[in-house]
Design a protein that fits this description.
Length: 557
Protein backbone atom coordinates (compact mmCIF):
# COMPACT_ATOMS: atom_id res chain seq x y z
CA UNK A 1 0.00 0.00 0.00
CA UNK A 2 1.44 3.36 -1.03
CA UNK A 3 1.82 5.96 1.72
CA UNK A 4 -0.79 8.68 1.51
CA UNK A 5 0.10 12.33 1.11
CA UNK A 6 -1.70 13.21 4.34
CA UNK A 7 0.36 10.65 6.29
CA UNK A 8 3.58 12.00 4.82
CA UNK A 9 2.68 15.59 5.75
CA UNK A 10 1.58 14.52 9.26
CA UNK A 11 4.79 12.60 9.97
CA UNK A 12 6.93 15.40 8.61
CA UNK A 13 5.09 18.07 10.60
CA UNK A 14 5.12 15.98 13.78
CA UNK A 15 8.87 15.43 13.45
CA UNK A 16 9.59 19.11 12.83
CA UNK A 17 7.38 20.22 15.73
CA UNK A 18 8.83 17.63 18.11
CA UNK A 19 12.42 18.58 17.38
CA UNK A 20 11.62 22.30 17.51
CA UNK A 21 9.69 22.17 20.81
CA UNK A 22 12.21 19.81 22.42
CA UNK A 23 15.06 22.10 21.46
CA UNK A 24 13.22 25.14 22.77
CA UNK A 25 12.34 23.32 26.03
CA UNK A 26 15.93 22.28 26.67
CA UNK A 27 17.18 25.74 25.82
CA UNK A 28 14.76 27.64 28.06
CA UNK A 29 15.18 25.13 30.93
CA UNK A 30 18.96 25.53 30.79
CA UNK A 31 18.61 29.30 30.65
CA UNK A 32 16.25 29.25 33.64
CA UNK A 33 18.73 27.13 35.62
CA UNK A 34 21.55 29.52 34.78
CA UNK A 35 19.48 32.50 35.91
CA UNK A 36 18.43 30.81 39.18
CA UNK A 37 21.99 29.72 39.95
CA UNK A 38 23.28 33.20 39.25
CA UNK A 39 20.70 34.71 41.60
CA UNK A 40 21.62 32.13 44.26
CA UNK A 41 25.32 32.91 43.91
CA UNK A 42 24.59 36.64 44.21
CA UNK A 43 22.53 36.00 47.38
CA UNK A 44 25.24 33.74 48.85
CA UNK A 45 27.92 36.32 48.14
CA UNK A 46 25.89 39.05 49.82
CA UNK A 47 25.14 36.89 52.88
CA UNK A 48 28.71 35.69 53.34
CA UNK A 49 30.04 39.24 52.92
CA UNK A 50 27.63 40.53 55.58
CA UNK A 51 28.49 37.65 57.92
CA UNK A 52 32.22 38.27 57.42
CA UNK A 53 31.87 41.94 58.30
CA UNK A 54 29.72 41.30 61.41
CA UNK A 55 31.79 38.46 62.88
CA UNK A 56 35.14 40.30 63.08
CA UNK A 57 34.64 41.52 66.65
CA UNK A 58 33.41 38.12 67.86
CA UNK A 59 36.52 36.44 66.40
CA UNK A 60 38.84 38.95 68.04
CA UNK A 61 37.18 38.51 71.44
CA UNK A 62 36.45 34.83 70.72
CA UNK A 63 32.90 35.45 71.87
CA UNK A 64 31.19 32.22 70.82
CA UNK A 65 27.76 33.39 72.00
CA UNK A 66 27.84 36.46 69.74
CA UNK A 67 29.03 34.37 66.81
CA UNK A 68 26.31 31.81 67.40
CA UNK A 69 23.71 34.58 67.55
CA UNK A 70 24.92 35.81 64.16
CA UNK A 71 24.57 32.33 62.69
CA UNK A 72 21.14 31.77 64.23
CA UNK A 73 19.91 34.94 62.53
CA UNK A 74 20.54 33.20 59.21
CA UNK A 75 18.25 30.31 60.00
CA UNK A 76 15.25 32.23 58.71
CA UNK A 77 16.87 32.69 55.28
CA UNK A 78 15.42 30.24 52.78
CA UNK A 79 17.67 27.51 51.31
CA UNK A 80 20.49 27.89 53.94
CA UNK A 81 21.32 24.34 54.96
CA UNK A 82 24.20 25.02 57.37
CA UNK A 83 26.77 27.67 58.31
CA UNK A 84 29.86 27.90 60.53
CA UNK A 85 32.62 30.26 61.56
CA UNK A 86 36.29 29.25 61.98
CA UNK A 87 39.19 31.12 63.46
CA UNK A 88 42.48 31.55 61.66
CA UNK A 89 43.69 28.14 62.87
CA UNK A 90 40.65 26.32 61.51
CA UNK A 91 38.86 25.80 64.84
CA UNK A 92 35.06 25.99 64.52
CA UNK A 93 33.77 28.59 66.97
CA UNK A 94 30.09 28.59 66.00
CA UNK A 95 27.76 26.70 63.65
CA UNK A 96 24.20 25.65 62.95
CA UNK A 97 22.72 22.90 60.82
CA UNK A 98 24.16 19.48 60.01
CA UNK A 99 27.69 20.39 59.02
CA UNK A 100 29.41 17.75 56.87
CA UNK A 101 32.72 17.76 58.77
CA UNK A 102 34.19 15.38 56.20
CA UNK A 103 34.19 18.39 53.85
CA UNK A 104 36.50 20.43 56.04
CA UNK A 105 39.69 19.14 54.50
CA UNK A 106 38.31 19.64 50.96
CA UNK A 107 37.10 23.14 51.89
CA UNK A 108 40.42 24.13 53.48
CA UNK A 109 42.42 22.92 50.46
CA UNK A 110 40.19 24.85 48.08
CA UNK A 111 40.32 27.96 50.25
CA UNK A 112 44.09 27.78 50.55
CA UNK A 113 44.31 27.46 46.73
CA UNK A 114 42.13 30.58 46.41
CA UNK A 115 44.00 32.61 49.08
CA UNK A 116 47.60 31.54 48.50
CA UNK A 117 48.32 34.51 46.22
CA UNK A 118 46.98 37.06 48.74
CA UNK A 119 49.87 38.88 50.57
CA UNK A 120 48.83 40.15 53.97
CA UNK A 121 51.40 42.97 54.24
CA UNK A 122 51.60 46.27 55.94
CA UNK A 123 51.25 48.33 52.80
CA UNK A 124 47.71 49.21 51.79
CA UNK A 125 48.26 48.32 48.14
CA UNK A 126 48.89 44.65 49.08
CA UNK A 127 45.79 44.40 51.23
CA UNK A 128 42.71 42.87 49.55
CA UNK A 129 39.46 44.79 49.68
CA UNK A 130 36.91 43.20 51.98
CA UNK A 131 34.14 44.10 49.57
CA UNK A 132 35.98 42.71 46.57
CA UNK A 133 34.53 39.56 45.00
CA UNK A 134 38.05 38.23 44.62
CA UNK A 135 38.01 37.12 48.29
CA UNK A 136 34.49 35.68 48.09
CA UNK A 137 34.65 32.00 47.04
CA UNK A 138 31.74 29.92 45.72
CA UNK A 139 32.38 26.17 45.96
CA UNK A 140 30.54 23.08 44.75
CA UNK A 141 31.99 20.18 46.78
CA UNK A 142 32.53 16.99 44.82
CA UNK A 143 31.29 14.87 47.75
CA UNK A 144 28.15 16.98 48.18
CA UNK A 145 27.08 18.33 44.76
CA UNK A 146 23.59 19.30 46.04
CA UNK A 147 25.04 22.15 48.16
CA UNK A 148 26.56 25.45 47.08
CA UNK A 149 29.05 26.71 49.71
CA UNK A 150 29.98 30.39 49.92
CA UNK A 151 33.02 31.37 51.99
CA UNK A 152 34.83 34.60 52.80
CA UNK A 153 37.77 35.56 55.03
CA UNK A 154 37.27 37.75 58.09
CA UNK A 155 39.91 40.51 58.01
CA UNK A 156 40.57 43.34 60.43
CA UNK A 157 42.82 46.29 59.84
CA UNK A 158 44.31 45.98 63.34
CA UNK A 159 44.06 43.50 66.20
CA UNK A 160 41.11 44.39 68.36
CA UNK A 161 42.52 43.49 71.84
CA UNK A 162 42.10 45.80 74.76
CA UNK A 163 45.65 47.10 74.66
CA UNK A 164 45.59 48.02 71.01
CA UNK A 165 42.21 49.72 71.36
CA UNK A 166 43.57 52.06 74.03
CA UNK A 167 47.30 52.16 73.50
CA UNK A 168 47.73 50.92 69.92
CA UNK A 169 50.22 52.76 67.69
CA UNK A 170 49.50 54.07 64.19
CA UNK A 171 51.60 51.27 62.70
CA UNK A 172 49.53 48.61 64.51
CA UNK A 173 46.31 50.30 63.42
CA UNK A 174 47.40 49.88 59.78
CA UNK A 175 48.11 46.13 59.92
CA UNK A 176 45.82 43.66 58.19
CA UNK A 177 45.06 40.53 60.18
CA UNK A 178 43.25 37.35 59.00
CA UNK A 179 40.90 36.59 61.88
CA UNK A 180 39.08 33.59 60.44
CA UNK A 181 36.70 32.31 57.77
CA UNK A 182 32.92 32.16 57.50
CA UNK A 183 30.99 29.50 55.57
CA UNK A 184 27.38 29.36 54.35
CA UNK A 185 25.99 26.22 52.66
CA UNK A 186 23.01 26.86 50.36
CA UNK A 187 20.81 23.86 49.57
CA UNK A 188 20.00 23.18 45.91
CA UNK A 189 17.16 20.72 46.61
CA UNK A 190 14.36 23.26 46.30
CA UNK A 191 15.94 24.84 43.23
CA UNK A 192 16.35 21.48 41.52
CA UNK A 193 12.79 20.60 42.50
CA UNK A 194 11.46 23.85 41.04
CA UNK A 195 13.48 23.33 37.86
CA UNK A 196 12.14 19.77 37.52
CA UNK A 197 8.62 21.05 37.96
CA UNK A 198 9.22 23.76 35.38
CA UNK A 199 10.71 21.15 33.01
CA UNK A 200 7.67 18.91 33.50
CA UNK A 201 5.31 21.82 32.92
CA UNK A 202 7.26 22.74 29.77
CA UNK A 203 6.99 19.19 28.51
CA UNK A 204 3.25 19.18 29.17
CA UNK A 205 2.80 22.50 27.38
CA UNK A 206 5.01 21.33 24.49
CA UNK A 207 3.01 18.11 24.24
CA UNK A 208 -0.30 19.98 24.23
CA UNK A 209 0.92 22.49 21.63
CA UNK A 210 2.45 19.66 19.55
CA UNK A 211 -0.80 17.66 19.61
CA UNK A 212 -2.78 20.76 18.70
CA UNK A 213 -0.33 21.55 15.87
CA UNK A 214 -0.51 17.96 14.64
CA UNK A 215 -4.29 18.07 14.66
CA UNK A 216 -4.23 21.39 12.81
CA UNK A 217 -1.77 19.93 10.31
CA UNK A 218 -3.98 16.89 9.73
CA UNK A 219 -6.94 19.20 9.19
CA UNK A 220 -5.02 21.40 6.74
CA UNK A 221 -3.70 18.36 4.91
CA UNK A 222 -7.26 17.10 4.60
CA UNK A 223 -8.33 20.49 3.25
CA UNK A 224 -5.49 20.37 0.71
CA UNK A 225 -5.86 16.75 -0.36
CA UNK A 226 -9.65 16.73 -0.67
CA UNK A 227 -9.61 18.79 -3.95
CA UNK A 228 -6.76 16.59 -5.18
CA UNK A 229 -8.88 13.52 -4.52
CA UNK A 230 -11.66 15.08 -6.59
CA UNK A 231 -9.23 15.80 -9.40
CA UNK A 232 -7.96 12.22 -9.23
CA UNK A 233 -11.49 10.82 -9.43
CA UNK A 234 -12.24 13.04 -12.43
CA UNK A 235 -8.99 11.97 -14.13
CA UNK A 236 -9.86 8.29 -13.58
CA UNK A 237 -13.26 8.92 -15.18
CA UNK A 238 -11.48 10.41 -18.20
CA UNK A 239 -9.22 7.34 -18.40
CA UNK A 240 -12.32 5.15 -18.38
CA UNK A 241 -13.76 7.10 -21.32
CA UNK A 242 -16.37 8.93 -19.24
CA UNK A 243 -16.59 12.69 -19.62
CA UNK A 244 -16.34 14.02 -16.06
CA UNK A 245 -18.12 17.04 -14.70
CA UNK A 246 -16.37 20.17 -13.59
CA UNK A 247 -14.39 19.94 -10.33
CA UNK A 248 -15.51 22.62 -7.91
CA UNK A 249 -12.80 24.01 -5.62
CA UNK A 250 -13.46 27.08 -3.51
CA UNK A 251 -9.83 27.94 -2.75
CA UNK A 252 -7.95 30.55 -4.78
CA UNK A 253 -4.46 29.13 -4.26
CA UNK A 254 -2.37 26.90 -6.53
CA UNK A 255 -4.79 23.99 -6.10
CA UNK A 256 -7.64 26.27 -7.16
CA UNK A 257 -5.64 27.28 -10.24
CA UNK A 258 -4.98 23.59 -10.96
CA UNK A 259 -8.72 22.88 -10.71
CA UNK A 260 -9.49 25.78 -13.06
CA UNK A 261 -6.93 24.47 -15.58
CA UNK A 262 -8.46 20.99 -15.29
CA UNK A 263 -11.94 22.41 -15.85
CA UNK A 264 -10.72 24.28 -18.94
CA UNK A 265 -9.21 21.05 -20.22
CA UNK A 266 -12.51 19.24 -19.63
CA UNK A 267 -14.35 22.02 -21.47
CA UNK A 268 -11.98 21.72 -24.44
CA UNK A 269 -12.36 17.94 -24.41
CA UNK A 270 -16.14 18.27 -24.49
CA UNK A 271 -15.89 20.74 -27.39
CA UNK A 272 -13.52 18.48 -29.29
CA UNK A 273 -15.68 15.46 -28.59
CA UNK A 274 -18.70 17.27 -29.99
CA UNK A 275 -16.63 18.34 -33.01
CA UNK A 276 -15.46 14.75 -33.52
CA UNK A 277 -19.01 13.45 -33.24
CA UNK A 278 -20.13 16.03 -35.76
CA UNK A 279 -17.25 15.13 -38.08
CA UNK A 280 -18.05 11.44 -37.63
CA UNK A 281 -21.66 12.09 -38.59
CA UNK A 282 -20.53 14.00 -41.66
CA UNK A 283 -18.15 11.17 -42.50
CA UNK A 284 -20.98 8.68 -42.24
CA UNK A 285 -23.03 10.86 -44.54
CA UNK A 286 -20.16 11.00 -47.00
CA UNK A 287 -19.71 7.25 -46.86
CA UNK A 288 -23.31 6.82 -47.95
CA UNK A 289 -22.49 8.53 -51.25
CA UNK A 290 -18.91 7.26 -51.43
CA UNK A 291 -19.42 5.07 -54.49
CA UNK A 292 -20.93 7.93 -56.47
CA UNK A 293 -18.07 10.19 -55.41
CA UNK A 294 -15.50 7.56 -56.34
CA UNK A 295 -17.05 7.06 -59.76
CA UNK A 296 -17.19 10.80 -60.31
CA UNK A 297 -13.58 11.29 -59.22
CA UNK A 298 -12.49 8.34 -61.33
CA UNK A 299 -14.08 9.89 -64.39
CA UNK A 300 -12.44 13.24 -63.65
CA UNK A 301 -9.11 11.50 -63.10
CA UNK A 302 -9.47 9.62 -66.38
CA UNK A 303 -10.21 12.86 -68.21
CA UNK A 304 -7.16 14.44 -66.56
CA UNK A 305 -5.02 11.49 -67.62
CA UNK A 306 -6.31 11.81 -71.20
CA UNK A 307 -5.53 15.53 -71.19
CA UNK A 308 -2.05 14.87 -69.81
CA UNK A 309 -1.50 12.24 -72.46
CA UNK A 310 -2.53 14.65 -75.20
CA UNK A 311 -0.34 17.36 -73.68
CA UNK A 312 2.57 14.92 -73.53
CA UNK A 313 2.07 14.03 -77.21
CA UNK A 314 1.91 17.71 -78.10
CA UNK A 315 5.07 18.40 -76.11
CA UNK A 316 6.83 15.52 -77.83
CA UNK A 317 5.70 16.86 -81.20
CA UNK A 318 6.78 20.39 -80.30
CA UNK A 319 10.11 19.05 -79.07
CA UNK A 320 10.59 17.17 -82.33
CA UNK A 321 9.73 20.31 -84.31
CA UNK A 322 12.07 22.40 -82.19
CA UNK A 323 14.79 19.84 -82.61
CA UNK A 324 14.25 19.96 -86.34
CA UNK A 325 14.38 23.76 -86.20
CA UNK A 326 17.65 23.56 -84.27
CA UNK A 327 19.09 21.27 -86.89
CA UNK A 328 17.80 23.56 -89.65
CA UNK A 329 19.32 26.57 -87.89
CA UNK A 330 22.62 24.73 -87.56
CA UNK A 331 22.49 23.78 -91.24
CA UNK A 332 21.65 27.40 -92.10
CA UNK A 333 24.60 28.66 -90.10
CA UNK A 334 26.91 26.26 -91.86
CA UNK A 335 25.44 27.16 -95.27
CA UNK A 336 25.35 30.90 -94.62
CA UNK A 337 28.92 30.97 -93.42
CA UNK A 338 29.94 29.49 -96.78
CA UNK A 339 27.30 30.54 -99.30
CA UNK A 340 27.13 34.18 -98.21
CA UNK A 341 30.77 34.80 -97.50
CA UNK A 342 32.07 33.16 -100.68
CA UNK A 343 30.32 35.43 -103.26
CA UNK A 344 30.97 38.52 -101.15
CA UNK A 345 34.63 37.60 -100.90
CA UNK A 346 34.80 37.04 -104.69
CA UNK A 347 33.01 40.33 -105.41
CA UNK A 348 35.31 42.25 -103.12
CA UNK A 349 38.41 40.59 -104.61
CA UNK A 350 37.35 41.44 -108.21
CA UNK A 351 36.47 45.02 -107.33
CA UNK A 352 39.73 45.37 -105.42
CA UNK A 353 41.58 44.07 -108.53
CA UNK A 354 39.87 46.59 -110.78
CA UNK A 355 40.59 49.44 -108.32
CA UNK A 356 44.22 48.45 -108.09
CA UNK A 357 45.26 47.38 -111.56
CA UNK A 358 42.68 48.82 -114.00
CA UNK A 359 42.00 52.15 -112.32
CA UNK A 360 43.95 54.08 -114.99
CA UNK A 361 41.82 52.62 -117.77
CA UNK A 362 38.62 53.87 -116.18
CA UNK A 363 37.27 57.37 -116.34
CA UNK A 364 36.58 59.39 -113.20
CA UNK A 365 32.89 58.58 -113.01
CA UNK A 366 33.54 54.84 -113.33
CA UNK A 367 36.17 54.99 -110.60
CA UNK A 368 33.72 56.72 -108.27
CA UNK A 369 31.11 54.08 -109.03
CA UNK A 370 33.64 51.35 -108.26
CA UNK A 371 34.45 53.02 -104.89
CA UNK A 372 30.77 53.08 -103.99
CA UNK A 373 30.39 49.43 -104.99
CA UNK A 374 33.48 48.50 -102.97
CA UNK A 375 32.20 50.33 -99.88
CA UNK A 376 28.71 48.80 -100.16
CA UNK A 377 30.24 45.35 -100.66
CA UNK A 378 32.26 45.89 -97.50
CA UNK A 379 29.12 47.04 -95.62
CA UNK A 380 27.27 43.95 -96.83
CA UNK A 381 30.09 41.76 -95.61
CA UNK A 382 29.90 43.39 -92.14
CA UNK A 383 26.11 43.01 -92.13
CA UNK A 384 26.41 39.32 -92.98
CA UNK A 385 29.00 38.89 -90.23
CA UNK A 386 26.73 40.65 -87.72
CA UNK A 387 23.75 38.51 -88.73
CA UNK A 388 25.79 35.34 -88.36
CA UNK A 389 27.10 36.54 -85.00
CA UNK A 390 23.55 37.27 -83.85
CA UNK A 391 22.39 33.83 -84.93
CA UNK A 392 25.29 32.14 -83.18
CA UNK A 393 24.60 33.99 -79.94
CA UNK A 394 20.87 33.29 -80.01
CA UNK A 395 21.44 29.60 -80.73
CA UNK A 396 20.95 27.71 -77.43
CA UNK A 397 22.72 24.61 -78.63
CA UNK A 398 26.03 26.43 -78.97
CA UNK A 399 27.22 26.70 -75.32
CA UNK A 400 29.48 29.36 -73.91
CA UNK A 401 33.11 28.42 -73.39
CA UNK A 402 33.97 30.37 -70.26
CA UNK A 403 37.42 30.80 -68.86
CA UNK A 404 39.25 33.18 -66.57
CA UNK A 405 40.48 36.16 -68.62
CA UNK A 406 42.26 39.42 -67.89
CA UNK A 407 39.82 42.24 -68.64
CA UNK A 408 42.46 44.91 -69.29
CA UNK A 409 44.32 42.74 -71.80
CA UNK A 410 41.05 41.96 -73.62
CA UNK A 411 40.21 45.70 -73.90
CA UNK A 412 43.72 46.51 -75.17
CA UNK A 413 43.46 43.82 -77.85
CA UNK A 414 40.12 45.22 -79.05
CA UNK A 415 41.55 48.77 -79.12
CA UNK A 416 44.52 47.50 -81.09
CA UNK A 417 42.21 46.06 -83.76
CA UNK A 418 40.34 49.38 -83.98
CA UNK A 419 43.46 51.55 -84.01
CA UNK A 420 42.58 52.77 -87.52
CA UNK A 421 39.37 54.34 -86.17
CA UNK A 422 40.93 55.90 -83.06
CA UNK A 423 42.60 58.88 -84.76
CA UNK A 424 43.15 61.65 -82.12
CA UNK A 425 40.57 60.43 -79.62
CA UNK A 426 41.73 60.12 -75.98
CA UNK A 427 41.32 56.60 -74.63
CA UNK A 428 41.40 56.20 -70.84
CA UNK A 429 41.53 52.67 -69.35
CA UNK A 430 40.78 52.65 -65.59
CA UNK A 431 41.07 48.91 -65.01
CA UNK A 432 43.52 47.25 -62.54
CA UNK A 433 46.20 45.13 -64.20
CA UNK A 434 45.13 41.98 -62.30
CA UNK A 435 41.38 42.36 -62.90
CA UNK A 436 40.09 38.90 -63.93
CA UNK A 437 36.67 37.36 -64.43
CA UNK A 438 34.98 34.45 -66.22
CA UNK A 439 33.63 34.90 -69.75
CA UNK A 440 33.57 33.50 -73.29
CA UNK A 441 36.42 35.50 -74.81
CA UNK A 442 35.14 35.07 -78.41
CA UNK A 443 31.70 36.45 -77.54
CA UNK A 444 33.23 39.30 -75.53
CA UNK A 445 35.42 40.13 -78.52
CA UNK A 446 32.21 40.83 -80.47
CA UNK A 447 30.93 42.92 -77.51
CA UNK A 448 34.04 45.12 -77.31
CA UNK A 449 34.24 45.49 -81.10
CA UNK A 450 30.66 46.79 -81.31
CA UNK A 451 30.76 49.00 -78.20
CA UNK A 452 34.09 50.66 -79.09
CA UNK A 453 33.31 51.10 -82.79
CA UNK A 454 29.96 52.60 -81.75
CA UNK A 455 31.78 55.03 -79.37
CA UNK A 456 34.22 56.01 -82.13
CA UNK A 457 31.40 56.46 -84.61
CA UNK A 458 29.46 58.93 -82.48
CA UNK A 459 32.43 60.79 -80.96
CA UNK A 460 34.43 63.54 -82.61
CA UNK A 461 37.99 62.87 -83.74
CA UNK A 462 39.31 64.67 -80.64
CA UNK A 463 36.75 63.17 -78.22
CA UNK A 464 37.35 61.05 -75.17
CA UNK A 465 36.40 57.44 -74.37
CA UNK A 466 36.76 56.08 -70.79
CA UNK A 467 36.66 52.39 -69.89
CA UNK A 468 36.54 51.39 -66.19
CA UNK A 469 35.68 48.30 -64.14
CA UNK A 470 35.22 47.35 -60.47
CA UNK A 471 34.04 44.41 -58.36
CA UNK A 472 31.23 44.97 -55.87
CA UNK A 473 30.49 41.89 -53.74
CA UNK A 474 29.87 39.09 -56.29
CA UNK A 475 29.28 41.36 -59.31
CA UNK A 476 31.56 42.83 -61.98
CA UNK A 477 30.61 46.35 -63.14
CA UNK A 478 32.05 47.57 -66.49
CA UNK A 479 31.55 51.20 -67.64
CA UNK A 480 32.11 52.50 -71.23
CA UNK A 481 31.66 56.27 -71.35
CA UNK A 482 32.20 58.81 -74.14
CA UNK A 483 31.61 62.53 -74.59
CA UNK A 484 30.05 62.18 -78.02
CA UNK A 485 26.82 63.52 -79.45
CA UNK A 486 24.66 61.40 -77.11
CA UNK A 487 21.36 59.63 -77.81
CA UNK A 488 17.98 61.37 -77.79
CA UNK A 489 15.80 60.29 -74.87
CA UNK A 490 13.02 58.92 -77.10
CA UNK A 491 15.44 56.42 -78.64
CA UNK A 492 16.94 55.03 -75.43
CA UNK A 493 14.36 52.29 -74.86
CA UNK A 494 14.78 50.88 -78.42
CA UNK A 495 18.51 51.06 -79.07
CA UNK A 496 19.05 47.36 -78.14
CA UNK A 497 16.43 46.16 -80.63
CA UNK A 498 17.83 44.37 -83.74
CA UNK A 499 18.18 46.58 -86.88
CA UNK A 500 17.27 49.73 -84.90
CA UNK A 501 19.34 52.79 -85.88
CA UNK A 502 19.27 56.23 -84.29
CA UNK A 503 20.99 57.97 -87.24
CA UNK A 504 20.79 56.19 -90.57
CA UNK A 505 23.49 58.32 -92.12
CA UNK A 506 26.16 56.76 -89.87
CA UNK A 507 25.99 53.38 -91.57
CA UNK A 508 26.00 49.99 -89.93
CA UNK A 509 23.57 47.08 -89.80
CA UNK A 510 21.69 48.09 -86.66
CA UNK A 511 22.72 44.83 -84.96
CA UNK A 512 25.73 46.07 -82.96
CA UNK A 513 23.98 46.92 -79.68
CA UNK A 514 21.60 43.95 -80.08
CA UNK A 515 24.69 41.71 -80.26
CA UNK A 516 26.12 43.45 -77.15
CA UNK A 517 22.89 42.86 -75.16
CA UNK A 518 22.69 39.22 -76.31
CA UNK A 519 26.29 38.56 -75.19
CA UNK A 520 25.68 40.16 -71.77
CA UNK A 521 22.44 38.23 -71.17
CA UNK A 522 24.10 34.98 -72.30
CA UNK A 523 26.59 35.53 -69.47
CA UNK A 524 23.77 36.07 -66.95
CA UNK A 525 24.27 39.84 -66.79
CA UNK A 526 22.46 43.09 -67.47
CA UNK A 527 23.24 46.18 -69.54
CA UNK A 528 21.86 49.68 -69.15
CA UNK A 529 22.46 52.99 -70.91
CA UNK A 530 22.56 56.57 -69.65
CA UNK A 531 22.78 59.35 -72.21
CA UNK A 532 22.16 63.06 -72.59
CA UNK A 533 22.10 64.60 -76.01
CA UNK A 534 25.18 66.71 -76.64
CA UNK A 535 26.93 65.43 -73.46
CA UNK A 536 27.77 61.82 -74.24
CA UNK A 537 26.69 58.25 -73.50
CA UNK A 538 27.49 55.75 -70.77
CA UNK A 539 26.93 51.98 -70.97
CA UNK A 540 26.97 50.00 -67.69
CA UNK A 541 27.40 46.21 -67.79
CA UNK A 542 26.75 44.12 -64.65
CA UNK A 543 27.99 40.50 -64.68
CA UNK A 544 28.39 37.74 -62.09
CA UNK A 545 32.04 37.47 -61.06
CA UNK A 546 31.82 33.64 -61.18
CA UNK A 547 29.72 31.35 -63.40
CA UNK A 548 26.70 29.57 -61.95
CA UNK A 549 26.98 25.97 -60.61
CA UNK A 550 25.48 24.55 -63.79
CA UNK A 551 28.26 26.15 -65.89
CA UNK A 552 31.29 24.90 -63.98
CA UNK A 553 31.69 22.02 -66.36
CA UNK A 554 32.57 24.35 -69.22
CA UNK A 555 35.19 26.39 -67.33
CA UNK A 556 38.85 26.38 -68.10
CA UNK A 557 40.78 27.15 -64.94
Amino acid sequence: MKPRLALKFSILTAGILSVSFLTLGIFFTQKQREVVMHDLEQLSTALVSNLSANSAFGLVTRDRRQLQTLLNSLSNVKNIKYSWIEDASGTVLAYFGDIPFDLFQEMHENIREKYKNIHWGKEKKNTPDLLSSSVRVILRPETSPDVLIATAPVIESRPLNRESLVFGSNEEKGRKVLLGTVFIGMSLHSIDRNLRQARHQSLIIISIVGLFSLALTIFMVHVITRPLARLKAAAEQMMAGITPGFVRVSSRDEIGELAEAFNRMVSQLISRKEALEKAYAELENINVHLEEKVAERTEILQNTVDELTRARDELQKAYAEMKAMYHAKAAFLRTASHELRTPLTAMKANIDYVRTYLSEQLDQETREIMEVVYKNCDNMRFMVEDMLTMLRIDSDFIPLSRKRVNLKNMVCEALSELRGLQQDREIRILIPDDFEFYCDSARFHDLWFNLLSNAYKFTSDTGKVTISAEKIHDRVLINIEDNGIGIPEEHLENIFEPFYQVQHGKGGSGLGLAIVKAVVEKHGGEISVQSEQGQGTRFVISLPSHPGPEEHGSQEQ
